[in-house]
Amino acid sequence: MADERQLFSQRGAQQPARRGSSDGVLWLVFELPAMPYDRRDTPSLIFESDTTVRRVRNYPANWYDLSDDDLIALSWTA
């Protein structure tokens, strides 16, 4: 898991990102391009905190404009 988190952090540093907070937890949210070995071949929206990483594959194009609460609610969708 640590290697995966490091990969996400490195990718996040290269992509436009948004910082937000919910319930005292700070989140970094960014798009991760499709990986060559990913059969779905679609980008993901990554939600990263100090203790958690979430991936959302279906998200609105205007995700960057969502409120913090709406953005974090999106992180709970599959």
Walk me through the structure.
The protein has 78 residues and is α+β, with helices and mostly antiparallel strands. The chain has one domain. 27% of the residues lie in helices and 29% in strands. It is built from two helices and four strands. The chain has helices at residues 2-14, 68-75, and strands at 17-22, 25-32, 44-48, 53-56. Strands 1-2-3-4 form a four-stranded antiparallel β-sheet, with helices on both faces. β3 and β4 form a beta hairpin. The longest helix has 13 residues, at 2-14. Residues 1-5 have low confidence and may be disordered.
Give the key terms.
78 residues; alpha+beta; 4-stranded antiparallel beta sheet; 4 strands; globular; disordered N terminus
Summarize the model shown.
27% of the residues lie in helices and 29% in strands.
Structural class: alpha+beta
Secondary structure tally, helices: 2
Strand content: 25-35%
Tell me roughly what share of residues is in helical segments: 25-40%
Shape designation: globular
**Mean pLDDT across residues:** 81
Radius of gyration: 12 Å
The run of helices and strands is HEEEEH
State the end-to-end distance: 19 Å
Sheet with the most strands, sense and barrel status: 4 strands, antiparallel
Unreliable stretches covering 5 or more consecutive residues: 1-5
* Number of DSSP-assigned strands: 4
- List the domain count as a whole number: 1
**Order of adjacent strands in the largest pleated sheet:** 1-2-3-4
